[in-house]
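Journal club prep, notes for RB
We'll compare a predicted complex against what the paper describes. Inputs for the magnesium ion case:
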Amino acid sequence: MNDWRFDVPTTGTKHLPPDARYVEALSSQGYAFEVAVADLIDNSIDAGARDVVVHFLRDGPRLVSLLVVDDGCGMNEGQLDVAMTVGGRRTYEESSLGMFGTGLKSASLSHAEAVTVVSTTKTTRSVGRRWTMEGARSNFQCDVVDPDYAQSLVDRYYDKPILWHGTIVRWDAVKDFPSTGDSRQTDMYLNRVFNKLGLHLGLHLHRFLERDDFNITIAVEDVRSRNVYMQFGVGPLNPFAHPVSGHRDYPRRFTAPVEGVGDVQLEAAVWPPKSSKTEFKAVGTVMNKQGFYFYRNDRLVQAGGWNGFRQPEQHLALARVAVELPSKHNDVFRLTVKKSGVETSPAFADSLEKATDDEGREFGQYLKDAQDAYRRGSKRAGGVQRPETLPPGEGLAPAVREAIETELPMKWGDPVSVLWEELDQNVFFDIDRETSTVILNSRFREAVLGDRKRALDDAPLIKTLTYLLLNKLFESERPSAKQRDHIQMLQSILAAAAHAELGHVAESET
Ligand SMILES: Nc1ncnc2c1ncn2[C@@H]1O[C@H](COP(=O)(O)OP(=O)(O)OP(=O)(O)O)[C@@H](O)[C@H]1O
Ligand SMILES: [Mg+2]
């Protein structure tokens, strides 16, 4: 007998709201620093801001706070309470970037122990609220900021407070900041983080930054002297800004009929081979910058990747497809809260099989054309074709990996890593086929590094040479007799060289 009930019988309901402990989960969404800052700027854009300033506040050698200041419409007290409430906002304009009502809280508390929001509108005085992790944990107790302080913070950033409207978000005890009081460390951190922020914001918000009336400035401010330095305006980084197309038939617009959503526009482009433009190079690696660039309301929400439609491959390195997502929530394209990725249901892949342009050309043809453009481009002068090579893996510096991937066509397979590990003193290297790793004997590590620090990607020259010399060995399951002999030969010569290196160091020390 079939006793399965298709409906589950219930007897009533109970109110079970989340416990305040939920804040821990909310603040552990794995936001990268630049992704979290972008989330705040999304809110500024939604508030109609024309200028957004990201200030790193520095007290001598130490970084103390991060401020995101915008000249958007601002919020009155009631609106600020809704803004600070997790999931507080319920309705949105069709064009707004926000959709979950959690970004501000989740992004901020992922990176700071406390977030203070101060806001003022054309008609209301400055008001402020603060979430501390502690307050949030103890039953969502949000602090009310002293209105005088709120006003003074606003005055600090604006010369004409009467005319001003806008919002300041302040992060304190930022986890990403270096904890040392060492000025040099702080400078190094700032250089790195400025670069990261510039690239991320430039890329994901490029359509806004291309407009004349929208700017993002990043700067460091000394809290005591109020000097501002390292100031720079974020420039747009348009992943489709190729100077010439890599294929004369492109870019081309395809329409994909997505079931349950309707027609979705795809703008398919082919980059010219070996472009050195930042717009091409700075966006991920060769393997992950190809594919779909999803935009929602002009904001890039995913930069590259094929979403399971196919595997990334070297031959598609020039293919980039801008996909305009519907702004309404739907089941085919699901955004993550961080808006740094799109999950697609099979309906999307199905629609690509049916996608055509207005001349009836199929989307599949585009992929072939992009591959052709790559093949033509990878032919060297005199028709020389470079051999396909296994991709570089761990242990090699990112710049080296990029150079290898640019210069050599990549073979599909496990990347070859080059790592240190202690081996018998008579050998310089070993081969681990299981993990596709060349192991360098760490007994010689210091001799190679000198005074430089050990790091995962240290000794770039030695490792690159080893990779170039040995990567072919990983192409087959088992080495041929010839290869075994070749390894034997390299082993003896390199061991002699390594010992000479050691001897040399010992001599120069005395
Ligand atoms: N800089 C700002 N200026 C004006 N209003 C803001 C600002 N930042 C946040 N808000 C208000 O607070 C609300 C909540 O922001 P929050 O980022 O938490 O969620 P959201 O933007 O609604 O959705 P999402 O979770 O998708 O980001 C916003 O909808 C907006 O009304
Ligand atoms: Mg938001």
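Talking point for the session: The radius of gyration is 28 Å.
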